[in-house]
Amino acid sequence: MLAEIADIHDMAISRDGNMLYAAIENTNSIVVFDLGQKKILHTFTAPIAKEKSVKHCGGCKDQGVRSLALSPDEKLIYATSFEANALSVINVATGEIIQSITTGAHPDSLILSRDGTKAWVMNRTSNSVSAIDLVTYQHVADIPLEKYDGTGTSNKPGAWVMALSPDEKNIVDTRYGQR
Questions:
Q1: How do strand 86-91 and strand 76-81 relate by DSSP bridges?
Q2: Where are the domains of the chain?
Q3: 3-state secondary structure of 16
Q4: pLDDT in tens, 65-79
Q5: CA dihedral 140, 113, 126, 53 (to 10 degrees)
Q6: Is the model's pTM score more than 0.85?
Q7: Checking CA distances to 11, which of 1, 142, 161, 163 falls within 20 to 30 Å?
Q8: What is d(CA 41, CA 57) in angstroms, rounded to the nearest whole number?
């Protein structure tokens, strides 16, 4: 069904199951797909124009929008941009970027609090988690992670993915190359 959308890095689905939002890393865009009608409704440009990314990172293949999360009211979508080092707040109805919030280096995965007032962004290169206040759109803190000693299958640094505990008091992360 989604064969027409290539290079999906992450997805978010509306509560009613009708809308799919897909992060397309290679084109640095977000595709809005109607699952009932089985068609693309919109394509939004992610936080940094691909032309700027190409100029700044020598090609930037796989360096665009990485992770998505919908606000509880589904009026906003949050997107991390690997090359831009940013979390962007995007109006779902218009595709307009409302706010771009600086994160640590190379933000990847993203999680929201249940009430949608906080976000945590995993920063792969800076090996940290950025705490973001989604009410004020402020970067509150960077939480450093333990250094990875490189004994796994890869020498790439940093965190990979994370999950929030049900009581929202702890974040669990994995490291690239860990066994």
A1: antiparallel
A2: 8-142
A3: coil
A4: 889 999 999 999 999
A5: -100
A6: no
A7: 142
A8: 30
- Determine the Cα–Cα distance for residues 13 and 63; give it in Å rounded to an integer: 23
Closest CA to 121 of 110, 132, 112: 110
The CATH number of domain 8-142 is 3.40.1190.20: no
Tokens standing for 77?
């979508």
Written as six digits, the tokens of 57 are 């990172």
Handedness of CA 21, 22, 23, 26 (dihedral sign): negative
Which position has the token pair 């906003």? Answer: 76
Tell me which residue has tokens 């995965």: 109
Looking at this protein, which amino acid is placed at residue 96? E
User: For residue 49, which phi and psi values (nearest 5 degrees)?
Assistant: -60, 140
Place of tokens 């699952």: 35
113-171 tens-digit pLDDT: 999 999 999 988 888 899 999 999 999 999 888 765 555 444 455 666 788 888 888 87
Dist. CA 81–CA 65, nearest whole Å: 4
